Amino acid sequence: MTTTWSWRKSTRSATNGQCVEIGTRADETTVGVRDSKLGDASAILLFPARAFAAFTGTHQHKSDNRG
Q: In what residue span(s) does the DUF397 domain sit (predicted)?
């Protein structure tokens, strides 16, 4: 069975290619993180979707408070 990922990169990413991409699958229970420069050749770090949402939500709120 082939797993299909839907990948996206932040709109704030620089054009120099030093970014990560975040991917989700149809079941939405797992989030993948990969190197955008390597694309499909990149290793994928897997996280439970709830844990990843908690992590990004925490960091998003902290970055909103920066001057």
A: 6-57
| CB-count burial class (<10 Å; 0-12, 13-18, 19+) for 21 | buried
Give the chain's radius of gyration (CA, Å).
13
Burial classification of residue 19, based on how many CB atoms lie within 10 Å of its CB (0-12 exposed, 13-18 middle, 19 or more buried): middle
- Domain layout of the chain by residue ranges: 6-64
Tokens of 42: 């990149």
DSSP alpha helix (H) spans, 2-48: none
Other C-beta atoms lying within 10 Å of the C-beta of residue 17: 11
Average pLDDT of the segment spanning 28-41: 92
Task: Give which of 53, 6, 9, 48 is closest to 30, Cα–Cα.
Answer: 48
